[in-house]
Write a structure and sequence with these properties.
Number of domains: 2
CATH architecture of the largest domain: Sandwich
Strand content: 35-45%
Oligomer: single chain
Helix content: under 10%
Number of strands: 13
Strand order of the largest sheet: 3-2-4-5
Distance between the termini: 30 Å
CATH topology of the largest domain: Immunoglobulin-like
């Protein structure tokens, strides 16, 4: 499921989902109607009734509608009594001038290692993914942005007694792809 804008909270049948949009919700009962509510601050809640056909995947794209400003926004000054809004000026933003600095080669290498990278994790069967102990959702997941360096990935599926930890080194500005296939009793 996706939303425009992304980062919205998802509720499925009244239960808040851990992952914000874009999100993948697995293990939804097929053939029965479900209520999906998508919420994001500054936007109207969006409620949808969704029925997933048996053996199929239901994609849901939601465009959230912006709420009319009831209060002045942080970029708009509050009204001043007796002064027409046309005479109120916004404070000027400071101007920043970029200056190029050349770092010694050793510092350049350290700076490169300090960027962000991405983790793309796939599992069979589905698993809950934790990165450095923080829950990130259930596979399949979109690429996860992480700081460059070593991270501990934990994969959990209590139904199939899966609890595996692996350490991954994520270089800056790169995507590390990991696919895990676990045996499933028939």
């Amino acid at each position: 499921m996706t939303s425009t804008p992304p980062g919205a909270i998802v509720f499925l049948d009244g239960k808040r989902w851990e992952q914000r949009t874009p999100a993948t919700i697995d293990s939804v009962a097929a053939g029965t109607p479900h209520t999906v509510i998508v919420q994001l601050a500054g936007f109207k809640d969006n409620e949808q009734k969704v029925t997933v056909p048996a053996g199929d995947i239901q994609k849901l794209d939601v465009t959230l509608e912006k709420v009319a400003d009831a209060e002045p926004s942080p970029t708009q000054p509050p009204p001043v009594a007796g002064v027409p809004a046309a005479h109120i000026t916004k404070p000027k933003k400071p101007v920043h001038v970029a200056q190029k600095t050349v770092k010694p080669p050793q510092e350049q290498k350290q700076a490169a290692a300090q960027g962000d990278g991405f983790l793309l994790i796939g599992t069979t069967p589905y698993c809950e993914v934790l990165v450095d102990g923080a829950p990130k959702g259930v596979t399949p997941l979109p690429p996860l942005k992480v700081a460059a360096g070593k991270h501990t990935i934990t994969l959990v599926n209590s139904r199939f007694n899966i609890n595996r930890q692996v350490t991954v080194d994520v270089p800056a500005n790169e995507t590390v792809r990991k696919k895990f296939e676990f045996p499933v009793p028939q």
